[in-house]
Design a protein that fits this description.
246 residues, Elongation Factor Tu (Ef-tu), domain 3, 2 domains, six-stranded antiparallel sheet, six-stranded parallel sheet, binds flavin-adenine dinucleotide
Length: 246
């Protein structure tokens, strides 16, 4: 699928941050005038003159978690102990970072007769949040099935918001699994264990000639590809975004 935007570099100010799951922060940046993107695309975020750095450098790729119609740009990440994330977590409101983008082709197909099946591993939910918000806002006719896998409900970014979207968009279904139910601190009505063919078949009963979208850490993407292959899904119907670096 081709995208028309030409990647450009901008300096953007941090507007705010919010915890969206355990140890997971969403950072809201101002959206530069003229910046357009398609839901599902990503940016390269660079720190400007950071006080520390490491072998991985001062830049990381992040999917845009906000929707194109929103007037800010949100990225969300697991806050771990790397120089990049230490500096990011201490950035003051109003401080500037550099973004380059948009990049990537993980964008919704055009044909509304085909369902979209969005399969997220952990923080891989970010491009799908953007797509789901867009679909609700534009009242897209596509049937959308969003399924996320996390260790516990507390680890699941944007969980409540993504559940609530079902009430706003009759064409959208949300479900998920948790892989460490014994560690859950809040109630969970969904599936448990790693994603299986049986789980997907139950969730996708009403899906029509689906296109599958996968996003998350490379290990998760590879595992889900195997599940889809076992279900007989054609490779041509699978689009992936590997969060290389995790
Ligand atoms: C197209 C694309 C889109 C992406 N989109 C996103 C996105 O939306 N959000 C996102 O977060 N990333 C995204 N990524 C990945 C992102 O670019 C970083 O590579 C990723 O966040 C890892 O960050 P890091 O290099 O700082 O290392 P981290 O993986 O954050 O940290 C590595 C270090 O942390 C420690 N560590 C590792 N695991 C744990 C753990 N479970 N608990 C505590 N400490 C641990 C270890 O000491 C390790 O050396 C994307 C990548 C690509 C290519």
């Amino acid at each position: 699928m081709s995208t028309t935007e030409t990647p450009t570099t901008y300096e953007v100010k941090l507007k705010g941050r919010l915890e969206v799951a355990a140890g997971t922060l969403a950072f809201q940046f101002e959206k530069p005038a003229g910046f357009t993107f398609k839901a599902g695309q990503y940016v390269e975020l660079s720190l400007i003159d950071p006080p520390e750095t490491d072998a991985e450098g001062n830049a990381r790729a992040f999917s845009i978690a906000s929707a194109p119609h929103e007037d800010f740009l949100t990225v969300a990440t697991r806050m771990r102990d790397t120089a990049f994330k230490r500096v990011l977590s201490k950035m003051k409101q109003g401080a500037a970072a550099r973004i380059e983008g948009p990049f990537g082709n993980l964008v919704l197909h055009n044909n509304p007769a085909r369902s979209a099946v969005l399969l997220a591993g952990g923080i891989g939910i970010t491009p799908f949040r953007s797509m789901a918000l867009r679909a609700a806002n534009e009242r897209l006719p596509h049937r959308i099935f969003l399924f996320c896998s996390n260790r516990t409900p507390e680890d699941a970014p944007f969980l409540e918001e993504l559940r609530r979207l079902e009430a706003l968009n009759p064409n959208y279904r949300f479900s998920g699994t948790i892989t460490q139910p014994e560690k859950a601190r809040s109630p969970w009505q969904g599936e448990t264990g790693f994603l299986t063919a049986g789980m997907l078949s139950r969730f996708l009963k009403e899906a029509v000639t689906p296109v599958y979208y996968l996003a998350g850490p490379p290990g998760m993407v590879a595992a889900v590809r195997t599940v889809l292959a076992n279900l007989g899904v054609d490779d041509d119907d699978i689009r992936t975004e590997e969060f290389a670096g995790y």
